[in-house]
Automatic annotation (TrEMBL):
It comes from Plantimonas leprariae. It is found in: Cell inner membrane; Cell membrane. One of its GO terms (cellular component) is plasma membrane. This is ATP synthase subunit b. F-type ATPases have 2 components, F(1) - the catalytic core - and F(0) - the membrane proton channel. F(1) has five subunits: alpha(3), beta(3), gamma(1), delta(1), epsilon(1). F(0) has three main subunits: a(1), b(2) and c(10-14). The alpha and beta chains form an alternating ring which encloses part of the gamma chain. F(1) is attached to F(0) by a central stalk formed by the gamma and epsilon chains, while a peripheral stalk is formed by the delta and b chains. The lineage of its organism: Bacteria, Pseudomonadati, Pseudomonadota, Alphaproteobacteria, Hyphomicrobiales.
Length: 159
């Protein structure tokens, strides 16, 4: 009897003990349970993968919408800025036009005032000169008074 014989005998005894205690069905059941558990985990993993794909698609859609919204906001802000700039330019031009018109009006008024003052000065000088000339010529009496009265009326009418 050699070692191979005893190895064979111990193998047969092992199988007999396993068979007696119904180990083969327990091992099969254990393997079946493990197989069911693995299938369930694979199904859960597949469902999680599909859910992750759905969420990824949703996030990508939201990102694209956000990018679109951001572009619209930038475009809107750009249009608003251009409108504000155009409005500011228009207001500036109106302001310059108004100020120019006011300045021209003031210049025209100053011109008119200067002309009126020059005329008044010229009239006063002419009346004074006429009085002086009449006084030098020696107007006296009724004619002198008439001349003085006439010069006063001329001065009032010309002013």
């Amino acid at each position: 009897m050699d070692n191979t014989f005893w190895a064979f005998v111990s193998l047969v005894v092992f199988f007999a003990v396993v068979w007696y205690f119904k180990g083969f069905p327990k091992m099969a059941k254990s393997l079946d349970d493990h197989s069911v558990r693995v299938r369930r985990e694979l199904e859960e993993a597949r469902l999680l993968k599909e859910e992750a794909k759905t969420q990824l698609a949703e996030y990508q859609r939201r990102r694209q919408e956000a990018e679109r919204d951001a572009k619209e906001i930038v475009a809107s802000a750009s249009r608003e800025a251009e409108a504000l700039l155009a409005d500011a330019r228009r207001r500036n031009e109106e302001y310059v036009t108004r100020r120019t018109q006011m300045a021209e009006s003031k210049i025209a008024q100053a011109e008119a005032d200067a002309i009126a003052e020059v005329k008044a000065s010229a009239i006063d000088i002419a009346v004074t000169a006429a009085k002086k000339i009449v006084a030098e010529k020696g107007s006296s009496g009724e004619a002198g008074r008439f001349i003085e009265q006439s010069l006063g009326e001329i001065s009032q009418r010309l002013h």
